[in-house]
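Usage

Read records sequentially. Each one opens with the input sequence:
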Amino acid sequence: MDFSKYYRDSGSEDFRLGYVSDVEGHWSYFLDFVRRSNVLDWEDVGGDEEIKFRQLVLRPNTYFVYGGDSVDKGPGDIRLCRALVSLKQRYPDRVHLLVGNRDLNKLRFRSELSDFDMARPLEEIGKPFWDRNAKSLKEHLEQVRDNHVGVEDVPLERFNTKAERLRYMLKHTLGCPDTFEFRRNEVAVLRKIYGHYPYSVDHHATTPFLPENQYYDLLLNEVTDDNVVESFEYEINHPQGSLRQYLKYASIAAIVGNTIFVHGAIDSLTMKFVPSLESRFHLPETSPPPFKSIHKKATYQVNGRLIDDVHEWVDALNEYLQIGLDDFERRPNWNNERNSRGGEALLAIQNRPSMWGRSVVCNSYGDGGVIYTINAMEERKQALHIAEENRDPLAFEGIASNVFDPVPAKWLNDHGISRVVVGHKPTGDCPAVLSSIYTGVEIVSADTSYSRRKGLTHNQLDNEFGEFRGPAIVSVEIVGSDEYCNRLETSGILACGTEYSNKYPLLPKITKAETTDHENGTQNDIGDPILGRKIFSGWWVKAKVPPNHYHLCRGSGRDVEYDVRPVAEVMSYLIQN
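and closes with the structure output:
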C-alpha cells in the first residue's frame, strides 16, 4: 500500500469539537482534561482569595460533547453535573450531554429507598436479576452484622437502615462500592464553601474552586450517614438536583455533521431500534427477536419499532428519554403490583438483558483494551445462540459489538455518517479506534477509566486519578474545515507517563460514490493512516509516541498488554500484507 497520499495538508481548521466521556465524578481528572482542551476554559465570575467561582465556557466556534456516565467513581459528582448543565444552558446548540447507564440507573433510588420498599421483608428482595453472582440484600446485611463484634444475636432488621440499603445498592447492584464515602467527602466540601448543603439555586450556574495544594479540615465526621443518603435522594429526586438537571438537558444520541455520538454502541442489534415505552426493567417475558434478520423492517419487532432514517432515529430516541423523565416525575413510586415505577422505560434501556441486547446505551465495542478481538466475536456468536435457543437474555451481559459488521456501517454511510464516538466500556490507556479504511466508518471508543497497568509501581503518577483509572488522560477532538469534513485528533498521557498527540486521516463529506471506496476521500490529508489498524498477532496500533514508535495493544477481557514498535517495522508489515 502506498501511504504517501495521506501525508498532505488537510486545509483549514474552522471546525473543532471536543469530547470526553465516563469521568464518573473524578473531579481532578475533569480539571486536567479542561486544562488540556482546545475547546473548554474556566472563566472567573466571582469569589475572593480563598474561594473562586468560575464558569465552564466554550471557545468561539467550537462544540463539545460529554459522552455520559457523569457520576459514581470520585468525589465530584455534584460539581461535574452542575458545570456541564450550566455549559449546556449557555450554549444549547453547541453542547450535547449524553446519558450513560450510571446516570440513568440512579432513577432507582426514589422507589427502592422509599418507605414502602424499606418496609418489605428481606426475604422478598432478591438479587439483581442481571447479575447471577451478586449478593442479595439479606446476604449483605448478614455480612455487615458478621463484621461487628458481639452482635451475633442482634436481629438483622437492626442493620436494615436506609444508609445500609444504599451501600448495598452501590456495591452489589451498581458496581461502585466507594461512592458512599465519595459523596460524604463532596458534601463536606460544599458545606465548607457555602456553609450549608444543599446550596442555593442561585449558585448552580457557577463552580467553586478552593486553592490547590492546601489542606482543609472538611469535618467529615459531621456529615452523617443520613446526610449522605439525603444527598443521593436530593440530587436525583428533586427537580433542581444536579443529576436530575443533567438528565433533563441530556440526550440518548447526538449527531454533529458526519459524526454520531452514543454512550454504548451502534450495531446490528441497536441500529434503527427504538424500544417501546412499555419496556420494563426486568428479564423480558417475550420471545427473543430473530437476530439474523433483526434489522429488517419485515421482521417482527419485539417490544419496539424500527426507524430507517438515522436523524429521525436519533430524534425518536431522545423523545423516548424525555417521555421517560416525564413518567418519572408523574409516578413517584411503584404501582400497586410493584412491577412498574416512574421512569421504568429508562431503567430498561440502560440494561442489556431487559432489551434483549438492544441497548444503544449499554451495548459496547472493545475487548482487552482494543476495538476488536477474535475471542470477543466468538463469545458474541455463542451468546446470540444461547439467547435465541435458550431464551436467555442474560447471555448479552458483557459481550462486545462487531465493529467489522458491514450492515450498520452501510446504514450510517448511506445517511452521511462516517464516524461513531462512544464511551461506556474501558479500552485501555488511550482510545481504541477502528480505522475507516475497513468499513467506511471510523469507530472511536474513548473510555480510559480503567487504565492502570498491572505491575507498575504504586507511585503518585500511577494513582494520579484513582486506583483503577490510573494516570492516563485523553483529549478527543474532531477538527476540520467544517462538521462534514474533518479528522479525529487524540492527545494525552499513557499509563506509563508518555505524552502523545495524534492526527487521524481526514474523513470527507460522504457522497453516494464514496460509500463503497474506503480509501478515497483522504487525498489532501496529513493524518496517520496506520492509527486504528490491526497488525500481526492480535496487536492494534493505538497511538504514535516519541521518538518514532507506535504504541500497540492487545488483550482479552480486562487483561491488557502493551508494546512499542518502530514505525518502520509496522509500516513494513502493512505494506507487505
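Summary fields computed downstream for this record:
- The chain is about 30% helix and 20% strand.
- Residues 293 and 299 are 7 Å apart (CA to CA).
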